[in-house]
Structure formats: C-alpha cells, structure tokens
Amino acid sequence: MSGGGLRLAATVLVFGYAFLYLPILLVAVYSFNESRLVTVWAGFSTRWWTALWANETLLGAAWLSLAIGALAASAASLLGLAAGWVLARARPFPGRTAFATATIAPMVMPEVVMGISMLLLFVGLERALGGPGRGLVTIAIAHATLAMAYVAVVVQSRLAEFDRSLEEAAMDLGATPFTAFRTVTLPLLWPAVAAGWLLAFTLSLDDLILTQFVAGPQSQTLPMRVYSSVRLGLDPQINVLGTIVMAVAASALIVASLLTRHRADGTAETR
Amino acid sequence: MRRVLALPGLWLALFLAVPFGIVLAMSFATADADRAPPVAFSLTLKNYALLFSDPLYLAAWIASLRIAATSTLVALLLGYPMALAIARAPRRRQPLLLALVILPFWTSFLIRVYAWMGLLADNGILNNLLKTLGLASAPGTILGTEWAVHLGIVYAYLPFMVLPIYAVLERQDRALLEAAADLGAAPWAAFVTITLPLSQPGIVAGCLLVFIPSVGEFVIPDLLGGTGTPMIGKVLWDEFFLNADWPLASAVAVCLLALLAVPIALFQRHHAERLR
C-alpha cells in the first residue's frame, strides 16, 4: 500500500477506535468525580466507589444477575453445542432450514418481540400447570434461548474448520458415534464451548429487555436496577457500576478470544 | 443424530415457536383491564386496524424504518473504511485490531447508551467542552432529539457492520489489485471496480445486522430520544407495560416480525453460505 493510503488507514482507525472507546472511558473517568453532577469535573474522589459497596439493593441485584448468568450460560452452552453440531455435521433432514433459522434468529430478532412472546408463554404455563413462577428460572430460560444462538455459531464455525475424517476414522475403527464425539470431537471443541459459555454469560449479565418482560416483581436484576435509576437521570454510582461491569465483561471476552486464538493464523475463520 | 437434534429442537419449539403462536393468537384478542391477565378471548382484527389507521402508530412505523435505514447507512459509511483499514493492516496485527472492534459490543449495552446520556446532556461533557473551547456560546440540545437516537444506534451497532465486511475483505485476493495496478488503474479505480463489488456480500450482511435490530430498538430511543415520535419498539413496550394492552402489543410484535421476516431470512442464508 502507498504511503498516503497507509496514513489514511491509520487516521480512519484512530477516529474509529476513538468513537468506540472515548464514551466508555469517560464513564470510567467520571466515576472518580467528586461532584454529584456526573458531567462536571470537580476533582478526584473515590466516594462513589465507597458508596456503591454500601448500596445493598444494587449488590443484591448483582448477585442475582451473576446467578442467572451462570445458569443461563450453562444451559445455552449445552443447547448451543447440540445445535451447532447438528448444523455443521448432520446430514440434510426435513426442516433443516427452519431449524437453522430458529437457531440464529434470536441474534437479530428485536428483543421486544422475543420478550413479549416468552412472557405470554410463561403466563400460559402458570395458568395451565401452576409454574414456573416468574423469576430466576424464567429469566434464565429466556437468556439461554437468546444466548444459545451465539454458542451455536461459535461451535459451528469451529466444526467447519476441522476435518470430519477424524470422526469418521474413529468410527471406522469401531467407535460408536457417541464415543467418537466424546473422544475426538469434544476435546477439539471444548475451547469453542468455553468461549461460548463466556459470551452467553456476558450476554445474560447485560440483558435488560427480555428480563424486564419475564421477571417477576421479586426479581430485580442488575440491568433492571440500572435502567430504572438511569431513567431518572445521571448518577455517579452508575458510573462506578458501569466501570465494574465493563471490566468484568472485557475480561470475559479477552479470555474467550484467547481460547479461540488458533483462528488468528490468517487462514482460519473470522466471526 | 436425532437424539442430538431433539434437545435444541424441542427447546426452540417450546420457547421460540410456541410463544410466537401465542402472540399471534393474542393479537386477535381484546384487552380487558378487569381480568387477570388483562385479556378477553376474541377473534377481532381491530388491533391491526388500529395499528394501520391511527396516524400516531403509522408515524412510529415510518420513523422506525427511517431511523433504522439512515443509521444503517451512516454505520456503513463509518464501518467500511474501518473494515478496509483492518483488512489491509499487517496480518499479525489484524486479530488485535478486530478484537478491539468486538470488545465494546460485549461490554454492557445499557452502560454504553448511558455514556452518551452524559456526553450529550444540555450541561453534558460535549456542551461543556464546546463552551470551554469557545466554539458555542449557548448549549445546543442534542439529548432528546432524533440526532441522539441516530448517534446511539450507529455507536451501538458499528461492530456488527465492521465484522462481516472485514471477513469478506480479508479473503480477497490481493493479486487482483496488483494486476489492476499493473494495467494502469489508479488506486481509487481499482477500489471501485474490484474491492467494492467483491465486498458486496459483507456489505449486505453488515447492513442486515444493523438494520434488523435497529427497527425494533427500545433502549436507545427510550434513553436518548425525546417524547416526540416514538419508535415502534417503544410503542410495543408502552402498550404492554404502561397501558396493559397485551393484544395491541402482540399485534405490534406480529407486524414487526412480519416486516423483518425477509431480512432475517436473507441473513440466515448469508450465514449458511459463509459456513459452507
């Protein structure tokens, strides 16, 4: 590439990354602001960080969110592993397109649509069977349904990368399909599943819309608390919380990308 | 194989397909505040009739499509150069540059929208900066306008635009560009005749990934937009949570899904082809 082209590319990237990161950085910087007015700098202070540790409502919501995240991510990993395997390996079967569409549709479908439909299902189930009560379980189910799409995509891309002849060789040597999967496919696949788990966990930790629909009155997750606080205006404690949440999510993503690092060799799949 | 399919298949049937069936049925029902849940069973089209005759709802549909379309276009104009710059960067740098694009997407959506509230408020960081620099005497109003909604959508969904375009550009054979240069084509001519047409699948995928969720977006118009024209996702939310009109909210959901069925199918096809 010519010198002018290089300079242009560098400028584009600097501006692009500044656009992506400056707003986030400012949230973190202003979490150390002395003033109650979030946007007016009045000197360095950690008072809002201390205040957050005393805020039991937010901490309780955080624990609930973490529990839901772990539950939803585990369910999504199992479901996404199965769905991704079917999409990558199974012979064509009737309804395959419908299955493929249903698997990845939650990635793009407006969440309000998923939210209202799942709530109506849970209301119907409650009336017909008496349960499950709305709360942790219903939220985790909703999050798992959303997040399994992401796990399926990661698993499917990983499976598309390596040769199925390995599995076939195992079966030629007398392994049952399940044994072949357990001893050949799964060891190759587990980094993708672990990465998928982390992605699902982050997704669940962050979800507001689905949660708001399917949550019961007793179950306020962290994003729900943040949302109701933010609607009333800016709050320095939200800056603190946002900084922590973003740091956790960023760490999860960094681990996830290290797990799928082999892709970076240039020939491999990029998401 | 069948047993493996059974688990996600049944799950999706129970928690995705059946709920859509219920929403469809609900959209023909009548709201009844005296019952719990607040619905009376009926087979009426009046929810749909209202959605397509009331000027307020019509305005919300049009605003949603317009805002989603313009935001998608802006995201493309911003995302394409980024994707191109990453694809032309040294190979060993590309994973890091790409990860830097993905990272914000996975860090709290809500907090990232909140960040713009602080930036755009009347006495916010941006206005204070402009005042300090002497560029503006009176603070301008951005928060609560459609400008802020556009900005929020572009900001939140930009990674969705960059990734698929990068994925296509990264695989392009650079020999094509060298050949064009050897034959005397200027760099911009090579870009217009080779790079751009070949990256069309990535452009389509990126635009779908930004456009589809933007149409039904709720958090961004709610927190950054004003009380003026609401977007349709906010209409659904308000009908459900504020007015407790479940049938009307369901009708909105059905229409939204019908409107997006074609783009979603297109996206699925693109995704399937990419993994072949």
Biggest chain contact: A-B, 100 and 95 residues
Global Rg of chain B = 23 Å
Shape of chain A: globular
Overall mean confidence score, pLDDT of chain A: 85
Topology (elements, then pairings):
The complex is a heterodimer of chains A (271) and B (276).
Chain A: H1 3-30, H2 47-54, H3 56-89, H4 96-108, H5 111-129, H6 136-161, H7 165-172, H8 177-206, H9 209-214, H10 222-231, H11 236-259
Helix pairs in contact in A: 1-11, 2-11, 3-6, 3-8, 3-10, 4-6, 6-8, 7-8, 8-11
Chain B: H1 2-26, E1 30-31, E2 39-40, H2 46-53, H3 55-87, H4 94-106, H5 109-120, H6 125-132, H7 146-170, H8 174-182, H9 187-198, H10 200-215, H11 219-224, H12 232-241, H13 246-274
Antiparallel strand pairs in B: 1-2
Helix pairs in contact in B: 1-13, 3-7, 3-10, 4-7, 7-10, 8-9, 10-13, 12-13
Can you characterise this structure?
The complex is a heterodimer of chains A (271) and B (276). Chain A is an all-alpha fold. Chain A has one domain (56-265): MetI-like fold (Orthogonal Bundle). Chain A is built from eleven helices and no strands. Residues 263-271 of chain A have low confidence and may be disordered. Chain B has one domain: MetI-like fold. In chain B, a hairpin with a 7-residue loop joins strand 1 (30-31) and strand 2. Chain B is globular and about 75 Å long. In chain B, helix 1 runs antiparallel to helix 13. Chain B contains 13 helices and two strands. Chain B is an all-alpha fold. A two-stranded antiparallel ribbon of chain B has the order 1-2. Chain B has helices spanning 2-26, 46-53, 55-87, 94-106, 109-120, 125-132, 146-170, 174-182, 187-198, 200-215, 219-224, 232-241, 246-274, and strands at 30-31, 39-40. Chains A and B meet through helix 1, helix 3, helix 4, helix 5 and helix 6 of A and helix 1, helix 3, helix 4, helix 5 and helix 7 of B.
